[in-house]
Amino acid sequence: MRKLGFILVLISIFSISCKVHLSKYDKKCKKTNTFIFLFNKTVKYPLKLIVDGKEIPIIHKKGDKLYIYNLKDGEHEIDFISDFYIFNRPVKRIKKGKGLLCYQVVLVTKYPKDFYKDKLKKPPIGKRIVNFFKFWKSRKEEKQINKNEVYAVLKD
User: Source organism's superkingdom (predicted)?
Assistant: First the structure.
């Protein structure tokens, strides 16, 4: 009888002392209405973010985390478009809400030099250079982003 009582006391102590573990990203998502993409490499070149068929403005900084602010709960279709990177896993149909996903890891690789030869039509070099200069010019000018609508920030 003593052993049973001792075991019950130990079980109750362990069950009380155990905490539900939330990662730092879960805590950050629960406080604010955000969604976080974690990239395996730092992204420093231009990137377009499309959520539900609508282009979302991104505040570009060099970083490996993309925070999407003011994203409503529900199911979203999210795509990344870039002339410089390949995103290994297509990101589609993300459900965001209570008890659901609030961050995701995405694998990023740079385009190899010979990638376009067999698979896709290569965009002209002039177009890529123009896009790159547009990106740097827009980076110097601070964009006026409405903080009440959906926007994204790329940072460390």
Answer: Bacteria
Half-sphere exposure of 69 (CA within 13 A, CB side): 13
**Under 8 Å between Cβ of 152 and 46:** no
- Span 20-34, average pLDDT: 65
Handedness of CA 15, 16, 17, 21 (dihedral sign): positive
Rounded to a whole number of angstroms, the CA Rg of the chain reads: 22
How far apart are alpha carbons 11 and 6 in whole angstroms?
9
For the chain, give every domain's residue range.
22-155
Q: What is the DSSP letter of 143?
A: P
Residue 106 and residue 11: Cα distance in Å, rounded?
Answer: 40
Q: What is the pLDDT of residue 115?
A: 58
Neighbouring CB atoms inside 10 A of 78's CB total 20
Greatest C-alpha distance within the chain: 84
pTM above 0.70, yes or no: no
Give tens-digit pLDDT for 79-91.
888 878 887 765 6
If one counts every other C-beta atom within 10 angstroms of the C-beta of residue 58, the result is: 20
CA 142 – CA 59 distance, rounded (Å): 9
